[in-house]
Design brief:
Layout: H1 16-21, E1 29-33, H2 40-47, E2 51-55, H3 62-69, E3 75-79, H4 88-100, E4 104-108, E5 119-122, E6 125-127, H5 136-140, E7 145-149, E8 152-156
Parallel strand pairs: 1-2, 1-3, 3-4
Antiparallel strand pairs: 4-8, 5-6, 7-8
Length: about 160
């Protein structure tokens, strides 16, 4: 169980992974895991003809989360979420959830200070401070294909 909620890490902006991927996904359904409390990304996606569902344990209602998890996504996006989960098992549970959909998953992580020393980053927030490559061995436990494309990790389950 997370000791520190990641609720306060939510930003009201269109995230870079959304800007990069969504213009190529017209007509598809996207599940945004840990998508935060704001609808900026959902509004942007709708304008592109993409159905975006947001799941966020701390920032969405139970009804919204149930609907999001049942959306039958074509792809999953998980932007800067793994790095703010303070419990290793909770992080692995989230990765397992993503992999169970058997669709391509796109992950980004904020590397923080890249020290590998995790801790509180500001009041009510926690940061793992891992480099992007530190996540690869864990992701390989759940996905058959894992590749890094710059700051983007692309995973595919078999």
């Amino acid at each position: 169980m997370q000791q520190i909620s990641s609720a306060k890490t939510s930003l009201n902006q269109i995230n870079p992974i959304i800007k990069k991927l969504l213009p190529h996904l017209k007509g598809l359904t996207v599940l945004d895991i840990g998508g935060g409390k704001y609808d900026s990304n959902k509004i942007y996606a709708t304008g592109l003809g993409v159905k975006l569902y947001i799941y966020d344990k701390y920032n969405r209602s139970e009804a919204q989360n149930v609907q999001a998890l049942a959306c039958n996504p074509d792809i999953i996006i998980c932007n800067n979420v793994l790095n703010v989960i303070d419990d290793g098992q909770a992080m692995r549970n989230l990765i397992a959830l993503c992999s169970c959909y058997q669709v391509t998953c796109y992950f980004t992580v904020y590397e923080g200070n890249k020290s590998g020393v995790s801790g509180i980053s500001k009041k009510g927030c926690w940061q793992r401070n891992w480099k992007i490559l530190d996540y690869i061995p864990i992701l390989r436990r759940y996905f058959t294909e894992v590749s890094c494309q710059g700051k983007l990790i692309v995973c595919q389950a078999s």
